[in-house]
Amino acid sequence: MSDKYSLLFIQPGVSWKSVPSIERMGLQLTRELKVRGYKITWAPILTKWIENEDSISLIRLARQEGFEVNPLILPRKYDIRHSVLTFHEYLGRLKCDVVCATGYKAGIITAFTPHKATIEVLRGWTGHTLQVRFYEFLDKLFLRKHDLVVAVSPTQREIAIRYGVAPERAWWIPNALDIERLPPAIASADWSEQIGLKSDSVLIGGVGRLSKEKGFDFLLRAFVDVHRAHPDTVLVIAGDGIERERLRRLAKRLDMELHARFLGEIPNGAQLISGLNLLVLPSLSEGMPNVVLEAFAYKTPVVATAVGGVPELVKDGETGWLVPPRNPHALAQAIRDALSNPEEARRRAENAYRHLLANFTVEKQVDKWEQALQTAVENWRIKRR
Q1: Residue 6 buriedness (CB in 10 A; 0-12 / 13-18 / 19+)
Q2: What's the pTM value of the predicted model, to 2 decimals?
């Protein structure tokens, strides 16, 4: 087996209008590994065969990058035994040295793969339904079966260790950002006009899935106080999800319906970040949020909650404002402070940009991943003896 392994990357494939960060991060990583000589195959998990595979964003983009793509069809969505057997049959038709799994479904079914080295990538758990919480719990229990666990935040690494993964097999490799591939910035005035606002509107906003763990309800409550102090502010939220209608109703109940804009899922979320006067991340749980890295790259000031890997990025008083989660009062106070002190906001945004370049480059990430791949294979060999 050579040092340049053949790698299988497996994670759920979904039809998205925009490309979610979990897919952007995976494609970015595999693109750079391919440049360094690794053979990459993508295995998007589907629940049924579909005629138009390119409607699945991961399939479409992976093929555009020149990767081999072989979808894994798991028709019995939550039947673990059937899914494991199906995966074993699938794996028998492919040649690979290391299986890299992202997401609880991929993590569970690949944990029972004795003939290949396996790595599970932890990007966070959502727990948005009882059924999902149950399978995420199983995923945590099976983490110890993998030859290596790669967490994108120290918090998730600690969770893996708590569930029985040996510390030396639980690695922290943070997300990274290739700033050369970011779309050009769009001015705040241009964004305001695009969404039907006055060009001098002050845009604060969030970008992400509209689900409970993203904490957008706390942002809406905080915005009531912010708008009272800064009447020219508009709250812009880009994303879609099961909480969208509930959040709309909450905005109406708070009398913020005219001042909070829900853009839905948009294809250019990164460019929206470039046009915001302030990015707010009100999450209750996170891995290593890509939207914060993008804000750093565009020098957009950031207010965020201290969850998951966020404190590795946002250093309060240095690279942004950091507040406790579930606290709309603290969130509002930090937003008001950022808006009232534009010079300080610019200083922290400049620091954040330097922090990004010093610690979260793709080159540093891939260097660590090459070490992780070698370690996973060595752990697998030891296990087989």
Answers
A1: middle
A2: 0.91
Query: In b/e form, how buried is each residue of 291-328, taking b as 16+ CB within 10 angstroms?
Result: bbbbbbbbbbbbbbbebbbbbbbbeeeebbbbbebebb
Q: Structurally, what CATH architecture does the domain formed by 6-176+361-384 represent?
A: 3-Layer(aba) Sandwich (3.40)
Residue 81: count other Cβ atoms within 10 Å of its Cβ.
10
What is the chain's mean pLDDT, rounded? 93
| pLDDT for 2 beyond 60 | no
> Which secondary-structure segment (H or E) carries 12?
strand 6-12
**What are 261-297's pLDDT values in tens digits?**
999 988 777 889 999 999 999 999 998 999 999 999 9
Q: Which 3 state secondary structure label does DSSP give 85?
A: helix
pLDDT tens profile 137-148: 999 999 999 999
Interval 322-346: pLDDT, tens: 999 999 999 999 999 999 999 999 9
* DSSP per-residue codes, 243-295: THHHHHHHHHHTT-TTTEEEEES-TTHHHHHHH-SEEEE--SS-SS-HHHHHH
Provide mean pLDDT across the span 240-249.
Answer: 94
Task: Tokens for 336, please give them.
Answer: 């008001």
Answer yes or no: is pLDDT of 205 > 50.
yes
Contact between 191 and 275 (Cβ < 8 Å)? yes
Q: Which CATH number fits domain 180-359: 3.40.50.2000, 3.60.10.10, 3.40.50.720, 3.30.1330.40?
A: 3.40.50.2000
Domain span(s) for CATH 3.40.50.2000 in the chain: 6-176+361-384, 180-359
Cα dihedral sign, 25-27-30-34? negative
